[in-house]
Write a structure and sequence with these properties.
alpha+beta; rod-shaped; transmembrane helix; membrane
């Protein structure tokens, strides 16, 4: 089973008013999803975001956004440059691949030399 992890790619303090407590100390965070398995590590193109007030510690959902918060969100969303969506194979994958190729090569060699017959 692969594990999923959200990696922070952009984080910024914003000075808009919080809709809950009207404080001007909030943080916007953009995260990219990474999946880690035994045979591969995959970076997905899926990006999530959260806006959190630092004083009342509440998450500001898009339903509660003001026009100012939405404008700031659009600005920072354009600035985010996520990593490319790629798959990187682990050393275990390469060890299994080489072992499989060696076994197939040895089987073909033994069959060609007449030691093994079907």
């Amino acid at each position: 089973m692969s594990k999923e992890k959200l990696v922070i790619i952009k984080e910024a303090n914003i000075t808009n008013n919080c809709p809950e407590c009207f404080n001007q100390d909030m943080k916007i965070t953009f995260k990219q999803k990474h999946k880690y398995g035994k045979l591969y590590d995959r970076t997905t193109s899926e990006i999530t975001h959260t806006i959190r007030c630092n004083k009342c510690d509440s998450i500001i959902y898009p339903v509660n956004w003001t026009e100012d918060i939405e404008r700031i969100f659009n600005y920072y969303q354009k600035m985010v440059t996520p990593e490319k969506a790629v798959i990187r194979f682990t050393p275990l994958f390469y060890i299994l691949l080489v072992s499989l190729l060696i076994l197939i090569g040895a089987g073909i060699y033994l069959w060609q030399s007449g030691i093994i017959q079907f």
